[in-house]
Each structure stands twice: as C-alpha cells, then as structure tokens.
Amino acid sequence: MNRAHSLFERFDDLDTKMNQWLVANSIHILRFCMGAVFLGFGILKFFYGVSPVESLVARTTTVLTVGIFSGHSAMVFVAVLECMIGICFLSGRFLRVGVWLLAFQMMGAMSPLMIYPSELFPGPLHAPTLTAQYIIKDIILIAAGMVIASTWTGAKIVAKSQSFRSALSGSRPRVFKTIHGS
Q: Of 70, 73, 83, 71, whose CA–CA distance to 44 is shortest?
C-alpha cells in the first residue's frame, strides 16, 4: 500500500510539473504551430497545380472579390494573405494584424459552405464531402485564433495548483475572468 501511495505521489508530482510547463508554453506553441501551418499552406498556393483545393479557392476568391482576382492571381492573393498570417504568428510581431488577417481569411475559407453547398454536401443525405469536412474543421483555427488574440491584451493562462487526486473529483476547472475598469 505504501509503495502504491509513493508511486501515485510521484505521478502527481509529474502531472503538476507537466501542467506548469503547459501553462507557461502552450499558447506560444499554439501560435507557432498556427504560423507554420499558414505559412506552409500559403507557400503551396503560389505554385500552380500543387494545392489540392486550388480550384475551389480560385473560384471562391473570384466570387468574393467580384472578379478582381481570378484564376492563378486569386491563388496568389490567398497565398500572400496566408503567408502574411503565418509570418505574423511565427514571429509574434504584428500579432494584431495577423489575427485580423486571419479573421478576414477565415470568412473567405468558410464561405464555400454557403456559395457551393450542392457541391460540398451532395447526395440524398447531404453528407459533407472530404473538402467540406476540411472547411468545417477550420472552426478549430478560428477558436485557436481567438485564444491567440486574447494574448495581445495580456491574457495568460494561470494555473491554480491542484493535485491529480482532487482533479479526479469530476468538477470542471473554473475559468477566472478579470475585468479592469476604465
């Protein structure tokens, strides 16, 4: 019994240290990963025939820009936008600009769901195609962008020390919100 208790205590210490590391680093890692994804996918869009969503992106951008950008110039427009977002997120500089560009880009990225519903949800049951699923998953990027956006005003994750055993009680962790008066 004593050995099991000691093993559990060591695990509890490890869990606490991992939690402290996550609190200190997770938002930076999220920002860096989002930057890498946007820069990587943005670079792909510069090259004709490389991006698997090239046709959809070009058609959607043509519709949204009322024909100002079409064909490969539409892809270059989106490529530049995504690379700018990626660079802002990777560097941590001009983060506000990067988040606003992300919001603009996400409106465009989600719009095919409304512009091309019969193409993305074909068949009698209107199940989403793989491309539609790819687009729908962008809500995760939107949520991640919201977390990153909160940091420009100084928001941080703050850990309240809690043992692993007490965390097993089933209660949800509390989210603390501080509002500073003007």
A: 83
